[in-house]
Amino acid sequence: MAAAGLLGAVATLASRRLLCAPPGAARGRAAVLGPARRFGASARAWRSSEDKVTVHFINRDGDKLTAEGKIGDSLLDVVVDSNLDIDGFGACEGTLACSTCHLIFEDQIFKKLDAVTDEEMDMLDLAYGLTETSRLGCQICLKKFMNNMTVRVPEAVADVRQSIDMSKNS
Ligand code: FES
């Protein structure tokens, strides 16, 4: 039972990480183990500080939370890996089913982000407090130009899955 739970957690982590994996990157077990396990000590250079990106989050209460991620991590990875206290963030674990990872970006950063997909746009349409520079954190992968950017957590959060559940009960 515990082993099944652990395997499920590993599978979720692997699928979350693959979103931002560059073409040709390791898939499956190798992706879960990470480069240090696949290539030994020589891969440690891959984890150098040059691969780190610092992100500041302005939380709902106005508090500033700062965390580091690696290039290629999603903003959901950053929040989860750094154990940031952002209530309800990432409820669907990056499967584009909740919009709880809604973040508001600075204009100059927003303009450089990869294009939004139809699936992300569908979820964004259901998010509270949508702005011109809103995106879903689970769909945004860290790049060097994002170093020291500040993203804002909207004041309210919508979990689409709960809305659906609630409508079933009414
Ligand atoms: S974590 Fe659910 S849509 Fe991003």
Keywords:
alpha+beta; 5 strands; Adrenodoxin-like; lipid metabolism; 170 residues; two-stranded antiparallel ribbon; metal-binding; binds FE2/S2 (inorganic) cluster; 7 helices; metal ion binding; mitochondrion; 33% helix
How would you describe this protein?
Its cofactor is [2Fe-2S] cluster. Residues 53-157 form the 2Fe-2S ferredoxin-type domain. Keywords: 2Fe-2S, Cholesterol metabolism, Electron transport, Iron, Iron-sulfur, Lipid metabolism, Metal-binding, Mitochondrion, Steroid metabolism, Steroidogenesis, Sterol metabolism, Transport. This protein has seven helices and five strands. The protein starts with a helix and ends with a helix. With 170 residues, the protein is of the alpha+beta class. It has a domain at 52-152: Roll (Ubiquitin-like (UB roll)). Helix content is 33%, strand content 14%. Bound molecules: FE2/S2 (inorganic) cluster (FES). FE2/S2 (inorganic) cluster binds at residues 76, 90-92, 94, 96-101, 123, 136, 138.
